[in-house]
């Protein structure tokens, strides 16, 4: 079985490389020649721990190749994974133009049976649209070749993508015909561990599963953020509350961390898209709409703490910001709370000096329009003469800083921690004015 992966972003590149690692021959296509050039040179266009070595190893072994040639890539794979972006449209619904363009390309060039797999996160009903797009382009050529369309949403997390793909909790496969079901089972056989990981279901349920899972995770975050804000008013410590809640196995410890709001390429757009899908089908998902609203407010929570301390006019103030990426171990800046925070501080006249261990380059690209924002090469350099430190992303390297050096660099020992990285009592003992979330 040979495999084509369409789109070499965070999902496509990991999918293609991990499939090659298990022995498959994989061809990855992208329409962005810059990305393919970097990959051909032995680099990778994104930051993902462990991925670059794995790409090199599989290219060297002759199992993994990259191309911008659509005809070549369609001819290559028996299975064609579509892993292109599905960004939000103006009304919040998923923009399917890239998915459908990929589908039409397959229809235009295929010469034998293909299993076409929607790996991108796509709304319920997309498999039908993909099927129609392929059939239409085949008809334009006067061909009537057989093909199947399968939904196989991806659950990997950026920053831990390789491990998530190689050792999945579950592999959701939505499929309506036996031939494709058998091929998908065989394809994922190398990823079974001590028990069956593949969940076969109908296509629509698979499509909805991905949105349901992300919506649930986003809900936990917004719920904890609101509780954290309440805890502050009540004089409770949300970290203690979190432990008390999480020990109930029905609740569990995961995803109960309050902070500066969720960001990234998935939760914001998937929550929006699900709300929109519901609306189109006559349902008002009130809980999820509130999740989104609470998240928008939470992104400004740290700024409000700064304003409570310094007043509404921040001109002449300088703030150090540690962390730009929407979470650690990635350079992904999509919907990162850091952007909202820096924008608001800047709008109020403050200067912001930011540091991130890997996302600076990407941040320069997407935050270049923010006035009075600059980027430091090193975490300590960002602090020089700043009125306070704001912690926005919980990178490991921020966990145990040299607090004496931090104190010396700042104008005053003042920290606004949006990720609850330190023990408040310890910070006070060290002489800091320390503000965290919910404690
Ligand atoms: P991305 O934006 O990093 O990558 C998409 C790639 O597709 C780009 O390189 C783009 O040039 C390429 N592309 C667009 N149209 C194309 C075409 N017609 N032919 C070939 N290549 C084309 O996107 P990312 O983050 O990898 O996400 C892809 C999908 O996976 C989205 O639907 C996303 O919601 C979903 N997803 C993303 C996860 C993540 O952590 N980033 C996790 C799980 C799902």
Automatic annotation (TrEMBL):
<dbReference type="Pfam" id="PF00984">
    <property type="entry name" value="UDPG_MGDP_dh"/>
</dbReference>
<keyword id="KW-0520">NAD</keyword>
<dbReference type="InterPro" id="IPR014027">
    <property type="entry name" value="UDP-Glc/GDP-Man_DH_C"/>
</dbReference>
<dbReference type="Pfam" id="PF03720">
    <property type="entry name" value="UDPG_MGDP_dh_C"/>
</dbReference>
<dbReference type="Pfam" id="PF03721">
    <property type="entry name" value="UDPG_MGDP_dh_N"/>
</dbReference>
<comment type="pathway">
    <text>Nucleotide-sugar biosynthesis; UDP-alpha-D-glucuronate biosynthesis; UDP-alpha-D-glucuronate from UDP-alpha-D-glucose: step 1/1.</text>
</comment>
<dbReference type="InterPro" id="IPR014026">
    <property type="entry name" value="UDP-Glc/GDP-Man_DH_dimer"/>
</dbReference>
<dbReference type="InterPro" id="IPR008927">
    <property type="entry name" value="6-PGluconate_DH-like_C_sf"/>
</dbReference>
<dbReference type="InterPro" id="IPR001732">
    <property type="entry name" value="UDP-Glc/GDP-Man_DH_N"/>
</dbReference>
<comment type="similarity">
    <text>Belongs to the UDP-glucose/GDP-mannose dehydrogenase family.</text>
</comment>
<dbReference type="InterPro" id="IPR036220">
    <property type="entry name" value="UDP-Glc/GDP-Man_DH_C_sf"/>
</dbReference>
<feature type="domain" description="UDP-glucose/GDP-mannose dehydrogenase C-terminal">
    <location>
        <begin position="320"/>
        <end position="424"/>
    </location>
</feature>
<dbReference type="InterPro" id="IPR028357">
    <property type="entry name" value="UDPglc_DH_bac"/>
</dbReference>
<keyword id="KW-0560">Oxidoreductase</keyword>
<dbReference type="InterPro" id="IPR017476">
    <property type="entry name" value="UDP-Glc/GDP-Man"/>
</dbReference>
<dbReference type="InterPro" id="IPR036291">
    <property type="entry name" value="NAD(P)-bd_dom_sf"/>
</dbReference>
<protein>
    <recommendedName>
        <fullName>UDP-glucose 6-dehydrogenase</fullName>
        <ecNumber>1.1.1.22</ecNumber>
    </recommendedName>
</protein>
<dbReference type="GO" id="GO:0016491">
    <property type="term" value="F:oxidoreductase activity"/>
</dbReference>
């Amino acid at each position: 079985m040979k495999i084509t992966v369409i789109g070499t972003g965070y999902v496509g590149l990991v999918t293609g490389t991990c499939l090659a690692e298990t022995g498959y021959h994989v061809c990855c296509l992208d329409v962005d020649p810059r990305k393919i050039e970097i990959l051909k040179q032995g680099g990778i266009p994104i930051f993902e721990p462990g991925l670059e070595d794995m790409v090199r190893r599989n290219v060297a072994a002759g199992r993994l190749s990259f191309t911008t040639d659509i005809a070549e890539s369609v001819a290559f794979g028996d299975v064609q994974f579509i892993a292109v972006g599905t960004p939000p449209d103006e009304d919040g619904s998923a923009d399917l133009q890239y998915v459908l363009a990929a589908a039409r390309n397959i229809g235009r060039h295929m010469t034998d049976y293909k299993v076409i797999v929607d790996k991108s996160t796509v709304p319920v009903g997309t498999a039908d649209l993909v099927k129609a797009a392929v059939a239409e382009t085949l008809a334009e050529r006067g061909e009537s070749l057989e093909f199947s369309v399968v939904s196989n949403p991806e659950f990997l997390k950026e920053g831990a993508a390789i491990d998530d793909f190689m050792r999945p909790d579950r592999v959701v496969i939505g499929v309506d015909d036996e031939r494709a079901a058998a091929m998908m089972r065989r394809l994922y056989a190398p990823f079974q561990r001590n028990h069956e990981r593949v969940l076969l279901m109908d296509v629509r349920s698979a499509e909805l599963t991905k949105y349901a899972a992300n919506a649930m995770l986003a809900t936990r975050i917004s719920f904890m953020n609101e509780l954290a804000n309440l805890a502050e008013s009540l004089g409770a410590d949300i970290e203690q509350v979190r432990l008390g809640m999480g020990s109930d196995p029905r609740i569990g410890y995961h995803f109960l961390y309050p902070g500066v709001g969720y960001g990234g390429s998935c939760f914001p757009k998937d929550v929006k898209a699900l709300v929109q899908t519901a609306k189109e089908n006559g349902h008002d998902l009130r809980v999820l709409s509130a999740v989104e609203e609470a998240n928008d407010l939470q992104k400004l929570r740290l700024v409000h703490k700064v304003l409570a301390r310094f007043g509404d006019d921040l001109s002449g103030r300088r703030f150090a910001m540690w962390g730009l990426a929407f979470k650690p171990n990635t350079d992904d800046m999509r919907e990162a709370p850091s952007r909202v925070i820096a924008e608001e501080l800047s709008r109020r006249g403050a200067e912001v000096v930011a540091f991130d261990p890997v996302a600076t380059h990407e941040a320069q690209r997407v935050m270049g329009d923010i006035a009075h924002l600059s980027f430091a090469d090193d975490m300590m350099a960002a602090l020089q003469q700043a009125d306070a430190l704001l912690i926005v992303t919980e990178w490991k390297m921020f966990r145990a800083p040299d607090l004496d050096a931090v104190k010396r660099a700042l104008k005053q020992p003042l920290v606004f921690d949006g990720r609850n990285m330190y023990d408040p009592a310890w910070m006070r003992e060290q002489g800091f004015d320390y503000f965290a979330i919910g404690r």
